Amino acid sequence: MDLLDSPAEADFRARLRAWLRDNVPAEPEPAALADRWPGMRAFQKKMYEGGWVALSWPKEYGGQGLGPMEEAILSEELGRTNAPTTIPVSHLGRPILSHGTEEQRRRYLPPLLSGDEIWCQGFSEPGAGSDLASLRTKAVRDGDDYVITGHKTWTSLGAYADYCLLLARTDDAAPRHRGISAFILPLDLPGVEVRPIVLANGDEEFAEIHLDGARVPAANMLGAPTDGWKIAMEVVSYERGAVDIGYQAKFEHAFAELVTELADRRDDPAVLRRIGRIAANLEVLRMHSLRSLSARVAGGAPGPESSIDKLLMTEVEQHLMGASLELLRDRRAHPRSEWFDRYLYGRAGSIYGGSAQIQKNILAQRVLGLPREPQA
To answer: Helices 269-297 and 68-79 meet at what angle, rounded to 10?
Structure first.
């Protein structure tokens, strides 16, 4: 695999760098999500209007008609700037792009990409997090509507969202993986209540969604009835990609900050060892992301091997943030500092997006072909 930019990719990178120089705010974004949210939305809209969002998507739905390599370059270059955190849109828009009707694509995708409408992902439930197939939220057909009752939790950006990509069981008689459907749920409907969850760092990044007889038009079903599991697997495959959700850029930017903070200790062997290990882990993540992208350039889509990305992302994040607390303990790594907030968030990496145990099971069974462990 050739890891050097082609002439066209080099030109794209140069144009992107010039645009970022002119458009990235000079001041760093605030640490608290509530304080940085307006800037995140404003920068998302600016990137969309500049043609830097959904680079590999068709132009008719708000994309640029380019490829995965341009998306990787975008992620790398964002990581080298002081750009506001980007709003994760790709993994939620992909199923609309691939399973939505033409009307759904044209209605929902452009405002999702621009940040004019915010989306969240209604998958996890109490008792149905990593074991998603055991979800109990139900959708019952009633004329032209589905009546939905249930409870979702750990919904990322739920407190800020306008729409939710919701999974609900529509067929109790079918095997549990096949009786699930996906819906486009407006969060302002009667019978929908969103309750923010305050995290250890004080952010309200997650929320619970309570559904008490919410009526959703049947036209808001995404894909065919019982396509929900297939759609869910597509979402999480993109969600676990470091490039797709901008995690690679976030880690590279944080690492650059850490190296700058420790510039006066560059002769300390203990510091150099920790920095070297982080740099090696970041490079492994970057190279594996490029390997995954090369398959997509050839026309593929992410599959179960994306669980490797998720495990690598978790290792990089937790080691990077843990090292920051140790190496900066006499400076900024105190409670309520930005580094401490990042550390607290990184501890959840072993759980969100599918726990580490689930990722290893996926790799064992679906990539390596190993048998399931016999049930007691």
So the answer is: 160
Q: How many CA atoms lie less than 13 Å away from 179 in the CB half-sphere?
A: 16
Active-site residue (options: 70, 76, 125, 239): 239
Cα angle 368, 370, 375 (rounded to 5 degrees) comes to 145
User: What backbone phi and psi angles, to 5 degrees, belong to 155?
Assistant: -85, 110
Q: Which two tokens stand for residue 161?
A: 């969202």
User: What domains lie within the chain, and their CATH numbers?
Assistant: 5-85 (1.10.540.10), 117-223 (2.40.110.10), 239-365 (1.20.140.10)
The band of 183, judged by pLDDT with boundaries at 50, 70 and 90, is very high
Alpha helices (H) along the chain? 7-23, 33-50, 68-79, 90-99, 102-114, 228-239, 247-261, 269-297, 306-327, 338-347, 356-362
Under 8 Å between Cβ of 9 and 2: no
Q: Answer for the pair 357, 130: CB distance below 8 angstroms, yes or no.
A: yes
The rounded Cα 172 to chain-centroid distance in angstroms is: 30
Q: Assess whether 261 carries a catalytic annotation.
A: no
Distance CA(242)–CA(248), nearest Å, equals 5
Q: For residue 83, which amino acid is it? A: A
How would residue 333 be classed by pLDDT, with cut points 50, 70 and 90? very low
* DSSP label of 56: T
- Of 84-93, 194-203, 239-248, 301-310, which range is least confident? 239-248
CB 222 within 8 A of CB 231: yes
**Average pLDDT value for residue range 225-237:** 87
Question: Residue 224 has what pLDDT?
Answer: 93
pLDDT number for residue 360? 83
Kindly report the number of other CB atoms within 10 A of residue 372's CB atom. Answer: 8
DSSP state of 128: B
